[in-house]
Each structure stands twice: as C-alpha cells, then as structure tokens.
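Recall the central idea of this unit: under ordinary conditions, the amino acid sequence of a chain determines the structure it adopts. In this exercise we apply that idea directly, starting from the sequence alone.
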Amino acid sequence: MKYHLKIFVLLLSLFYTTSCEKKEQLPNIVLIMADDMGYECLGCYGSTEYITPNLDRLAAEGIRFDHCYSQPLCTPSRVKIMTGQYNFRNYEDFGYLNPNQKTFANLLKDAGYATCIAGKWQLNGLNRNNPGNQDVNRPYHFGFDEYCLWQLHHRKNDGERFANALITQNGIDLPRTENSYGPQVFADYICDFIGRNAGKPFLVYYPMVLVHDPFVPTPDSPEWIDSARRYENDTAYFSDMVAYTDRIIGQLEAKLRETGVWDNTLFIFTGDNGTGRTVFSSTVSGVVQGGKGLTINTGSRVPLIVSWPAKMKGKRVSEAMVSFADFFPTLCEIAGINPELYANDGKSLAPVIFGEKEKIQDEIFIHYSPRWGNNGHNRWVMKQDYKLYRDGRFYNTATDPEEENPLTNFSEEEKMLKEHFQQILNEKENLVPFHKNDTSFNLNN
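Accordingly, the structure predicted from this sequence is:
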C-alpha cells in the first residue's frame, strides 16, 4: 500500500510540475496601439522627420510588416482588433462596443492570463448615451483584471488626456494634478502591472492616447516648463508627441528586461488608423499627408512591428497582408486557446511570426462604416498594389496612391485579379448586403 501511495504521489508531483512548466512557458503578450499614427511616422518606414530609435531598433531586430491595414477611424479599429470581427458584424455606433461581444482579453483571462488595459477606452457609448455608458465595470466585463483609462465614463469635454489628464483607474478617478501627463501615467501603471505579474503569463493591451490631437507639448518639450503653454495646440508639437511615444516604448521594454520576461514576451506595436489630415510628414519618398478617415491607403496603412526574441527566427521585413481582424486569432493561438472556442474573421499571424510561412492570405477585405462624419462608407478588397471598391473602381495603389485615376485598360493579369476581387465582394454582399443609407454621425472623437 505504501509503495502504491508513493507512486501515486510521484505521478501527481510530475503532473503538477509539468502543468506548471507549461503554464510558465506561455508567452506574455504586450499589444500597443498608437492613436492616429500612420506608417509614415516611423524612421523604419521611411520617415526623415521624426525621432523613433526604440521602435526602429525593434523593427530591425524583429519583424517589420509593410502591409498592415486597420480601419480608417479609431472606434471601428478598436472594435475590430478586440473582437476579430468585420465591422458589419458588431460595430454599432461610434465610441461603443456592445457588451454582448467577447474580446481577446476575455479568452486570455479564461486561459489563465493576468490582464490589463491602460490608455484610451472610448467604448462605453458616451457620445450618444448608449445604455450603460456610466458603467465603470465595463473593462472588467470585457476580460481585463485591471485598468487605467481615459474617456471611460467621462466625456472628452470633462477632461483631456495629456496635461492634467482625467483618468479613471479601477473604478476611481485619479486626483488631477497640473504636472501629471496622461501618457506617462498609463506607462507607469503598465510597468507596475508587469512588475506585479512577472511570475505568470500576462496580457497588456495599451491603446495609447498619443499621437492624437490636440497637438500639445510633452514633458520633453521646452514649452512644457510654462504651464500656460501646455494646452497650446499646434502641429509643430506633433514630432515631440511621436518622440514621446517612442520614449514610452523604451520604458516598457526596459521594464520587461528588468523583470526577466523580455525574451518570452510577444511585443506588438501598431496604430489604430492613419495620421490626422493636418499633419504632413517628410519621408524618403516625399511628403505624406495624413489620411485619417479616408479610404485611401494613408487612412488605414499603419505600422506593425513584432518582437519575440525567444521564438522568432531572425530579423526580417514581411510583405504579408495583415488586417485588424488578424490580431484576435493570433493572440489566441499564441496563448494556446482552442480555435473552436471562438469565431472570428481573421487569420492567425503565428506562422509568419515563427517563420513557417511568408503570408497568411493573398488579399484582405475591409468594410468601413464610420458612423462619424459624412462620407467614407464603403467596401473594398485589396492586396499590396491593387484595390477594388464595390462600385467597380479599380486602382494600382503603387503608382496611384491618392487613387485619382481608376484603371480602365487592364492587362490579362489585372483583369483576372479584378474578377477575383469582385468575387470576394459578391460573397460578402450575399452574406451581409451593403446599405447605401447607413447612418453616419458627425461626432468629435
């Protein structure tokens, strides 16, 4: 009897040890999404104007994706990245995510991850008084164990996101101080979370408030010294905001290294949509005007940098087509979550990250219904150099990035590509018909 008991205890011990090791081997995940930062804002994507050494280095040491496409506007992108669904499925209103949805945080929390969100929320439905817009527990409902957020249940007019920011942390409004700087408050909170959870797998989702307007001084700007100038709105400060974004990236990386978890952390940086239209950026290819809200590529082409030292096979540049629907299945696969537990419209990037494949898809489909402003409602299919809209306009976006001259004469290859794109659009039309009179609202985000 004693012999059998010893064997049982030994087997139980081995099972427990193996299970713990498996759990410890799960990677940490840090997903950072800058606000209103198009691909042209980073040196690694050709910027000659902005200083981004940390992001440029991460791109050089990891993977730089050259063809990542968000939605052209913030809330449509936030809903899509968090749920992995095309906007026609679950984007109901600007600044709102219906509580009936599940996010990647819900699934990762169920899989044993400690979860945190910090930065810009804007999903309670404040703009139009959607039900529950004062619910300070909504981030918990969407799978986050803790949060530190701007625009959770306070409107933008109640307090801004930069100097003297109005921030809600785990249900309590933080004291406002003139010398506080919202982006730094969020970064410090994330670092504290990492320090407290470094011994187990964790998810950090950081939808930044930088570099959205108002374009104001940062603590690194000389003008910050004069408290009266901290609210001075001028595109001249945009470069300082980009530089501060990069500084925060360096701070988070340093904390991950300090706690010994950097090597086994999937670190992702992207942007929610194109740069604001008042911003003109110098690049190696010329001056690029921001295209936020527009369906041309400068409205939705965003940076995507991925680092995971323990798993990635060498540094590289990827030409893979990436949609914002692809983040959800990527995080779930990385966390070992059974794909039968969730539905989504994306494809996991894990094979590209691991160097097993060069691409996961040949083209992507985008449904854009902003419910903000008075135009832009459309659908299209695209690949690296070509785009077809539902009204039949077909562009070579490499030679015509502003989409001013639809193709009328096609090569045989272009003709076949257009027909293939049209077939995809037809399939989506049969699934969910496109409504020309979809309601859009002129709201201030």
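Confidence is low (pLDDT under 50) at residues 5-24, 440-445.
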